[in-house]
């Protein structure tokens, strides 16, 4: 993408940042409360708190809260934070407001690699999914970037998004082809392939917590560099910024976070697109705050989407990936139609 020199964005007022932080934390707290209390059987919040304070109970309510809803809430927190921050970092390193792990095909690449690993190598469990998800995410990102780079017009925001959409569609088609030729594998992954928090345990969270935390910490440290990068490559370099290194580290962070989220919960779409844009309306363009707030708001959105999926199809449920797609698709259309696609 062509470099450009612009004035650095004005920071948001402190009072506005404090308000944004308070709202984000309240949203997350409410989302967590809903996640453990609402479902096919609603449980009063007081009973939920008592169950959490006395984890030894083995009755039906204890099984629902501790054995089902708490683990899926914890996995939702990790996957949501990973997807939200991955989207914020991708938008920063590409200066592309349409960047998102699902739109740019990173999630689809990770999902295909996991499915191939199961079908060909017989892997099982989140711990063995992780390396395949990381490899698939990295290869998909390189493929999308390569296609966009050689296309007429170069690495424009819309061109990169179109390259990602085509790649994601192709990889998803291959994933579906592998699944439909293996009935047992299709039955095993029919929910995971659209993105799901149902049926997760704390073991899943334990496997992905380390790469997610490492990715989040590095992403927060990249915030200042991404602010400089937003001024344009030439100006950033003249200010001492190592542009190639920043983009390389950002790409590694994206692979860590998106790969972890896919390994844990499947290829959930649009969280990394919608959340960074939403938090910028309150926090301003400072990437440090965008990343921090995305790590709080994204899991809140994911948990609320999961709760919505439980209640709208009672006594069954819609998987969370379907709900986030319904939420995120209009956001994507609005962004494509707006002037914001010119760049960040």
TrEMBL record:
Protein name (Swiss-Prot/TrEMBL): Iron complex transport system permease protein
Top-level taxon of origin: Bacteria
Membrane topology: Multi-pass membrane protein
UniProt-annotated location(s): Cell membrane
Residues making up the signal peptide according to the UniProt record: none
InterPro entries cross-referenced by the UniProt entry: ABC_BtuC-like, ABC_transptr_permease_BtuC
Family: Belongs to the binding-protein-dependent transport system permease family. FecCD subfamily.
Upper lineage: Bacteria, Bacillati, Actinomycetota, Actinomycetes, Micrococcales
Keywords: Cell membrane, Membrane, Transmembrane, Transmembrane helix, Transport
PANTHER family per the UniProt record, alphabetical: FE(3+) DICITRATE TRANSPORT SYSTEM PERMEASE PROTEIN FECC-RELATED, FERRIC ENTEROBACTIN TRANSPORT SYSTEM PERMEASE PROTEIN
Organism expressing this protein natively: Curtobacterium salicis
Membrane-crossing segments per the record: 73-90, 102-123, 129-151, 158-182, 202-223, 244-269, 289-308, 320-340
Pfam short name (any one): FecCD
């Amino acid at each position: 993408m062509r470099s450009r020199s612009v004035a650095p964005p004005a920071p948001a007022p402190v009072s506005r940042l404090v308000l944004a932080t308070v709202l984000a934390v309240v949203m997350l707290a409410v989302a967590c409360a809903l996640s453990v209390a609402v479902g096919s059987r609603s449980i009063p919040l007081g009973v939920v708190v008592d169950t959490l304070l006395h984890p030894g109970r083995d009755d039906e309510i204890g099984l629902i809260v501790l054995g089902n809803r708490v683990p899926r809430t914890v996995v939702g927190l990790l996957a949501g934070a990973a997807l939200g921050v991955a989207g914020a970092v991708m938008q920063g390193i590409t200066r592309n407001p349409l960047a998102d792990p699902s739109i740019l095909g990173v999630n689809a690449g990770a999902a295909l690699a996991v499915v191939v690993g199961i079908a060909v190598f017989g892997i099982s469990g989140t711990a063995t999914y992780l390396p395949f998800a990381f490899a698939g995410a990295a290869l998909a990102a390189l493929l999308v970037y390569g296609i966009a780079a050689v296309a007429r017009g170069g690495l424009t925001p819309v061109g990169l998004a179109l390259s990602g959409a085509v790649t994601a569609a192709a990889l998803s088609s291959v994933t579906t082809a592998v699944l439909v030729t293996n009935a047992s594998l299709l039955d095993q992954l029919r929910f995971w392939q659209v993105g799901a928090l149902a049926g997760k345990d704390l073991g899943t969270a334990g496997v992905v917590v380390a790469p997610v935390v490492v990715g989040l910490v590095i992403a927060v440290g990249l915030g200042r560099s991404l602010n400089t990068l937003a001024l344009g490559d030439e100006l950033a370099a003249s200010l001492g910024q190592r542009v190639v290194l920043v983009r390389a580290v950002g790409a590694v962070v994206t692979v860590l976070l998106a790969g972890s989220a896919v390994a844990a919960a499947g290829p959930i779409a649009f969280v990394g697109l919608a959340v960074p844009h939403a938090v910028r309306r309150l926090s301003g363009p400072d990437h440090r705050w965008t990343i921090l707030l995305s790590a709080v708001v994204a899991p809140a959105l994911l948990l609320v989407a999961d709760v919505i999926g439980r209640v709208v199809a009672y006594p069954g449920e819609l998987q969370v990936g379907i709900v986030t797609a319904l939420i995120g698709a209009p956001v994507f259309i609005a962004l494509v139609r707006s002037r914001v696609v010119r760049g960040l």
